[in-house]
Design brief:
single chain, alpha+beta, 2 domains, 3-stranded antiparallel beta sheet, 11 helices, elongated
Length: about 350
């Protein structure tokens, strides 16, 4: 049984935001659907990609060339292929290549994962869907190239020990803290009222409700007496002693302070934490690296924004937001990610 399925997704998310400088151009050759800096994407290539989608996902797209869905799909696929061409040209500028051996290795893994290592089973699976092994190899090559572009951008991201130390110190309370407890309180003006509330709580009335109705602390009254997750030393001494002697869901007896009489309830106990810098360094380094990479990728998108002149033939231009009903206009780029038509078995 095939353990993974072909994923066919057209223009689902923005990976590269590329400006399209012309939505129609009479200077294109008759066989052209679009061009990227003069490199032609043919109408035949667009229809061939649509063939793969129709074959791999029957019923998803009408195969009738006269249908609106078919025409819309041609426009979406053209936009996708424009972005793939942009990425191919960007990869060339970075001296990024994908060898046949790399593609074969990935294809062998697909066969191993999905067809028990039997290439003939893959061939049979594809032939029933009007898709070829070369289609799959082309898809794998696009995805490998995209990953290499990502890796190339990420290679420029540098995270120093000083960066990591700074984040650790800025967030030290997340890594080193004494025992903390989630506490609710009811603050009363006098002992007699406190004893009455204590009796009502013992009788089963709800703590939060009674806090809202009776507490004199304006900071917590409207939140059902919710104080938050606190350390012992953040509470008045007598209240801290009471709160930190309770078990979860226990309620204290009334405690006298200069601010009034407190009744407290503990809802959660967090044990003390003492995570050293060394123990969280890798986690923090990975997190900072990912954040810097996100910014580096955004900067990269801006850099390529003005590098490409894209022309579309009539009937092949990107659909507008109004036409698609989404925030995407077909300007997605990225093999093996959303916005990519995949013809390789994917995990369900």
């Amino acid at each position: 049984m095939v353990k993974k399925f072909f994923s066919i997704t057209i223009i689902a998310a923005i990976v590269f935001a590329v400006a399209f400088f012309a939505t129609g151009c009479s200077s294109l050759p008759d066989n052209a659907a679009a061009s990227v800096n003069g490199v032609i994407i043919t109408k035949a290539a667009v229809r061939d990609r649509l063939r793969q989608i129709v074959g791999m996902s029957p019923g998803m797209i009408s195969p009738d060339p006269s249908s609106q869905q078919y025409r819309d799909s041609l426009r979406d696929i053209t936009s996708q292929m424009v972005n793939e061409e942009i990425e191919r040209q960007e990869a060339a500028k970075r001296n990024i290549t994908v060898s046949d051996n790399e593609v074969t290795k990935e294809l062998d893994q697909v066969i191993e994962d999905n067809f028990y290592g039997d290439a003939s089973k893959l061939q049979d699976f594809l032939s029933k869907r009007n898709v070829t092994v070369n289609d799959v190899r082309a898809d794998l090559k696009r995805r490998i190239m995209h990953q290499k572009v990502l890796d190339s951008v990420k290679a420029g991201v540098k995270v120093t020990d000083a960066d990591v130390q700074a984040v650790y110190q800025q967030n030290i309370s997340n890594y080193v803290h004494p025992e903390r407890r989630q506490v609710r309180e009811i603050v009363l003006a006098d002992q007699a009222t406190a004893q009455q509330i204590e009796s009502r709580l013992a009788g089963g009335e709800d703590f939060s409700t009674l806090a809202g109705q009776n507490s004199i602390d304006p900071k917590t009254k409207n939140n059902g007496g919710f104080v938050g997750i606190v350390s012992k030393d953040s509470l008045p001494p007598a209240v801290g002693d009471a709160a930190f002697s309770l078990k979860v869901n226990q309620v204290s007896a009334p405690v006298q302070t200069d601010q009034g009489w407190y009744i407290v309830k503990v809802e959660l106990i967090q044990p003390p934490l003492n995570q050293s810098y060394d123990s969280v360094k890798k986690q923090l380094t990975d997190s900072i690296t990912n954040q810097k990479f996100s910014q580096a990728w955004a900067d990269y998108e801006k850099q390529i924004h003005d590098r490409y002149t894209v022309q579309f033939a009539d009937g092949y231009s990107p659909r507008t937001t109004a036409e698609t009903g989404t925030s995407s206009t077909g300007s997605s780029l990225g093999s093996g990610q959303a916005g990519q038509t995949q013809t390789t078995p994917q995990a369900p």
